[in-house]
Amino acid sequence: MGTSYPALPMKSHTDRIEIDGVSLSPHHFIGGERIPSESTFEVRSPMDWNKKLADISQGDHETADRAVASAQEGFKQWSALGVQKRTDILFALADLIDANAKDIATVECLDMAMLLESLNLRLVPRGALNFRNYAELVVEHQERAWSSKGTNNRIIRDPAGPAIIITPWNAPFMLSTWKLAPALAAGNSVILKPAEWSPLSASLLADLINEAGFPPGAFNVVQGLGSEVGAALVSDPRVRRISFTGSPETARHIGVAAAKNIVPFTAELGGKGPLIVFADADIDAAAKKAAAQFEDSGQVCLAGTRLIVESSVKNEFLERLNYYTDQHIPGDSRNNKTTLSAAIHPVHLQRVEGFVERARKNGDKIIFGGGRFWEDKLWYKPTLIEPLSNDSEVVQKEIFGPVLTLQTFDSQSDAIDLANSTAYGLSGIIYTSNAQRAEQVGRAVRAGTVWVNSFLVRDLTAPFGGYGISGIGREGGDYALDFHSDLKTLQILDGSVS
Fold first, then answer.
1. Position 10 confidence tier, pLDDT thresholds 50, 70, 90
2. CATH number of the domain to which 290 belongs
3. Would you name the residues annotated as active-site residues?
């Protein structure tokens, strides 16, 4: 560790490729330079699996070592700039994201098949908003001062050091910026390790960060397999923070590595959210929102995948759900008429198919869907399953596909029991017109975020995270800034200094 690395000779680091007219580098971004690797991995578009988009440099232990060394040096410069200069650069980056939003959306749409309209209208603009939000918030994140026992006291928030940010393959640009913004605003340097199934927008972000004027090493991108370069990054003792979004299985390995080095670790680990519909609710609105859970091929951690409906309105709800589900249109995500995108990867689609086939064999009732739209493509039909029992696998495990379950209840307490009956606790959705019920059930559902008569309405200053195996720690607002800081109490005896 701490080795001085020469530029690798096997390729020019200025190599660029084009993705639908957008130029980007397939190489790592370390210390302000593009660094290639001898090994590469393929990236293909879910919308046309026969079409290779790029060969991407695949990092290894040496790449990770080099990136952490770069982040150490970058941390010295970035943290020394001070809050005001850092916020100026963050605002400049946000402006560059806005100016290049179309290119980012184009690449991300091809890379993971997320709907282009959603990327253009919500997710890429949210990336710019994340940086603006934290540039403003860190200025307001003032030191706390008070007098106590004859002393003056202040709480000082120091930047912690190099941070590892590991992001998932769904909505990668938005989720990367969501994690990067507080880490950089707090004064930390960062190494971003994007998911190998959708790494391309991270390369575009590196270009923009370079243009915005970040010092070399303040931001780095390392590409490759989580089991290889990811494991090397999180186990490096020079790392001072780790933020991860992904599966509980991977989080357990990262948590062990973090614990060995006494490194604070936050994780958002998916969900199995309940969508509870009471008889007094607007049934049409609830059914429409339930059908919307199929969008983006159900690859949304916050989705309400367990429909829990009061028995007396089950038939009415199902009728409306069928109607709204039938309005969905599968197809090319670049077409604004498309509402159902392809699954991210053949391996993931096979995983989704496995859940449905096991449910069918175990006697769970497939109400609709249960197969692909086209045998040789990655689009899966919206699927609704009525399980034999609450212990069914499709109820208890995250599927992360366009598959919902339907259960019924007869009392408010039964609804709460069903909602809290899994190991997950990321989100919940409640539909009711009764204010008292909204308050009671909203408080009783064990989840990090609970929406009443709405979904995906986010205040970026609010804490975000999960109960149970849905995660550790909280992102958002002051919570993320505190995580990325070392807190110091400075105590000075009254009258002892002048």
1. very low
2. 3.40.309.10
3. 268, 301
